[in-house]
Specification:
The structure is a single chain. 36% of the residues lie in helices and 32% in strands. By secondary structure, it is α+β, with helices and mostly antiparallel strands. Strand 2 and strand 3 form a beta hairpin. Helix 1 packs across helix 2. The protein is globular, with a radius of gyration of 10 Å. Bound molecules: copper (II) ion (CU). Copper (II) ion binds next to helix 1.
Length: 66
């Protein structure tokens, strides 16, 4: 399970955008977003860096991988 702190997620649209971006990299990925904590959790077989790039390409800033 990968965990990221992601900045400026504020609503359901953000959750959908990030989920879609991650699933574009790995359609089998399980994505959970905790808006209150600004945290994205991803269960994937892909490289952690690939997931970071996908989130950033969706327009969000990954503050840290935790
Ligand atoms: Cu939003």
């Amino acid at each position: 399970m990968l965990r990221y702190q992601v900045e400026r997620m504020s609503c359901g649209h953000c959750v959908q955008a990030i989920t879609k971006a991650v699933k574009a990299v790995d359609p089998a990925a399980e994505v959970a977003v905790d808006l209150g904590a600004g945290r994205v959790m991803v269960d994937t077989s892909q490289e952690a860096d690939s997931i970071v790039r996908a989130i950033e390409q969706a327009g969000y800033t990954v503050a840290s991988a935790a």
